TrEMBL record:
Its EC number is 3.2.2.21. It comes from Streptomyces hyaluromycini. SUPFAM superfamilies: Ada DNA repair protein, N-terminal domain (N-Ada 10), DNA-glycosylase, Homeodomain-like, TATA-box binding protein-like. It comes from the Bacteria. Its cofactor is Zn(2+). Gene3D superfamilies: DNA Methylphosphotriester Repair Domain (3.40.10.10), DNA-3-methyladenine glycosylase AlkA, N-terminal domain (3.30.310.20), Helix-hairpin-Helix base-excision DNA repair enzymes (C-terminal) (1.10.1670.10), Homeodomain-like (1.10.10.60), Hypothetical protein, domain 2 (1.10.340.30). This is DNA-3-methyladenine glycosylase II. Keywords: Activator, DNA damage, DNA repair, DNA-binding, Metal-binding, Methyltransferase, Transcription, Transcription regulation, Transferase, Zinc.
């Protein structure tokens, strides 16, 4: 974490937005905490203190700045580039596990005792799991207050509070305003239709949307995903119901429209959309490392800020990776669309052409193998995968240990290094996953003058670590192998 005092003071004095979400500045004289890029005149250095999380600021008695709204900062890149206990816990908290299952449920998913999880989070973030979940509930409450006309009682329970009194006390403590006063401050145009929310998802600049949205649109499964009116749209399977997300790139944010069957799923839907678009990445750190290779530097300089397109459902992506083995993108989409039509859960989409949720592993495990239009060996791979996902012996959630998940995948029939690495890169979120055997990567490498054999390319790519998954995006996006499929 960036908590070196001199480093933090310089970032605040220069209003450096790159560090938003890395740390928070608490002002001792005003008892307010801000993001590093807060537009107000910076306080005197002796009046600054720094915390690694908004929850830690709130626990120390500081309230959120009304000007820079630090609770809406991009998330720390740490939680998506690491696979240790703290990073996995933070991904689960963002996914709403503490609100649904409590701290024992969080600890159980991680394979540790509640006391061990509490100790680790306190040591690194200055706040335990309950305080971190409380900060997330406060942010969700603020969002609902400012963007909907829902009664406060409904907002309280949708945000995860156990009582209206706790909701009122938390909002006052965190924002120094009552829920009614927060609503009075919203713009007149903020009212939206019931169940629909329009949000701005922040990110660290630069962000190049071409490969990100282009890849998602080019591989979209009909009925589950589509490109419509300048936005990527897809259905979401969520803990309390289902939803539809529409995501469109803008110069300084991602425009996000969410339609949810249950508003309690709001924080989870936001977290999964951010994760799919890799919005919490630190592109400056990534690009600076890749620029050290003279063969990659021109690609980075030409289109900096490429992200890794990920997924909102790890099990879904693993299934789709198997469907895509040794076939074209179009054929993989056709296979997936047939499964969706036959076994997906129907949904209503009055705004577009989305018709189903992608089938769950449990539903796919019931599919008769003889009905699958694929070679016998791949059919065995498919049925083994969905069987393991359905019975819980293989889990690919945000809390997964990357090394353990890789080992379990490699043990499955029909799973080679390419399939495992693409799942690690796009489903597990490993920023260092690499695909040296991918034909497109090898051709791009040869054209650039990089080694063309997998072993030699892997050796050369050691200098790109821990960001080899991002190097893959730059190689895939070479002129001869464009991934810029962004539809007009």
């Amino acid at each position: 974490m960036h908590l070196d005092r001199e480093h933090c003071v310089r970032a605040v004095q220069s209003k450096d937005a790159r560090f938003d979400g890395w740390f928070f500045t608490a002002v001792l004289t005003t008892r307010i905490y801000c993001r590093p890029s807060c537009p107000v005149v910076p306080p005197k250095p002796e009046n600054m203190t720094f915390y690694p999380s908004a929850a830690a600021c709130q626990q120390a008695g500081f309230r959120a700045c009304k000007r820079c709204r630090p609770d809406t900062s991009p998330g720390s890149p740490e939680w998506n580039q690491r696979a240790d206990l703290v990073a996995r816990a933070m991904r689960l908290i963002a996914d709403g596990v503490v609100d649904r299952e409590g701290v024992p449920g969080l600890a159980g998913r991680l394979g540790y005792s509640p006391r061990q999880v509490e100790r680790q989070l306190l040591a690194e973030l200055g706040a335990g799991p309950l305080a971190l979940a409380r900060a997330q509930r406060a942010q969700t409450a603020r969002l609902l207050i400012e963007t909907t006309a829902l009664p406060m009682a409904e907002i309280a329970f949708a945000a995860g509070f156990s009582s209206i009194r706790t909701f009122n006390d938390t909002v006052r403590e965190v924002f120094a305003l009552s829920p009614s006063e927060l609503r009075d401050r919203r713009p007149r145009s903020a009212h939206q239709a019931p169940g629909a929310l329009t949000l701005r998802l922040p990110f660290r600049a630069p962000l190049n949307p071409d490969n990100l949205f282009g890849h998602l649109a080019a591989t979209a499964v009909p009925g589950v995903e589509e490109w419509r009116d300048g936005a990527y749209r897809r259905t979401l399977r969520l803990p309390y119901g289902h939803g539809i997300a529409a995501l469109a790139p803008k110069p300084d944010h991602i425009a996000c429209r969410l339609t949810l069957s249950d508003l309690r799923d709001l924080p989870v839907a936001i977290s999964r959309c951010r994760r799919m678009l890799d919005l919490d990445a630190d592109p400056v750190a990534v690009d600076d490392r890749l620029r050290t290779d003279p063969f990659l530097a021109p690609l980075v300089d030409k289109a900096p800020g490429r992200r890794v397109p990920r997924t909102v459902d790890e099990a879904e992506f693993a299934v789709r990776a198997v469907l895509g083995q040794q076939v074209s993108t179009a054929a993989a989409r056709t296979h997936a669309a047939r499964l969706v039509t036959a076994h997906g859960t129907p949904v209503d989409d009055p705004e577009g052409g989305l018709t189903h949720l992608f089938p769950s592993p449990e539903a796919l495990a019931e599919v008769p193998p003889d009905s699958l239009a694929m070679p016998r060996t791949r059919r065995t791979t498919f049925t083994t995968l969905v069987g393991r996902l359905a019975d819980g012996t293989l889990h690919l959630g945000v809390e997964s240990d990357w090394s353990e998940a890789r080992a379990k995948l490699l043990a499955l029939p029909g799973f080679g290094p390419w399939t495992v690495d693409v799942i690690a890169m796009r489903a597990l979120g490993d920023p260092d996953a690499f695909l040296p055997t991918d034909l497109g990567i090898r051709r791009a490498a040869q054209e650039l003058g990089l080694p063309g054999t997998p072993a030699a390319l892997t050796a050369r790519a050691a200098a790109w670590r821990p960001w080899r998954a991002y190097a893959v995006q730059y190689l895939w996006a070479t002129d001869s192998h464009p991934i810029n499929f962004l539809p007009v």
